[in-house]
Amino acid sequence: VQLQASGGGLVQVGGSLRLSCAASGRIFSSYVMGWFRQAPGKEREFVAGIKWSGGRTYYADSVKGRFTISRDSAKNTVYLQMDSLKPEDTAVYYCAAGLQYGSSLVADFRSWGQGTQVTVSS
Q: In angstroms, what CA-CA distances link 5 with 13, 84, 122?
């Protein structure tokens, strides 16, 4: 599966942004779609994941209650709605596909899209 992320930009503290990840190629019902982020000088970290079939979701504690992951099966697209943004949310955001629901490990996600920059200004 090929992934294309978009929707990043500059937003003020407390603002909102929605990222999109368009998937092409065959998407198996067992896939788990995830969002990760990487800030300068830091390791890539898990943000949110969703089971393609059924739509079950899970989140990193740092974004729980502020971010919402969803998918539109008809459009083969996964979204990340980000609300109440903080400066520490500034990072390059990546979408990825894997098979292990509940995993937050980079190694468990085999397909990656290019990143999209999110900058939260104070």
A: 22, 21, 25
Residue 74: phi and psi, rounded to 5, are: -65, -30
List pLDDT tens digits, range 80-104. Answer: 999 999 999 999 999 999 999 999 9
Q: Please spell the DSSP secondary structure of 32-84, one letter per residue.
A: EEEEEEE-TTS--EEEEEEETTT--EEE-TTTTTTEEEEEEGGGTEEEEEE-S
Distance, in Å, from the CA atom of 106 to the CA atom of 121, rounded to the nearest integer, reads: 27
Q: Tokens 């899209």 — which residue?
A: 113
Q: How far apart are CA 53 and CA 93, in angstroms?
A: 23
Report the run of H or E that residue 12 belongs to, with start and end. strand 9-12
Residues 6+ apart with CB under 8 A from 38: 44, 45, 91, 92, 94, 115
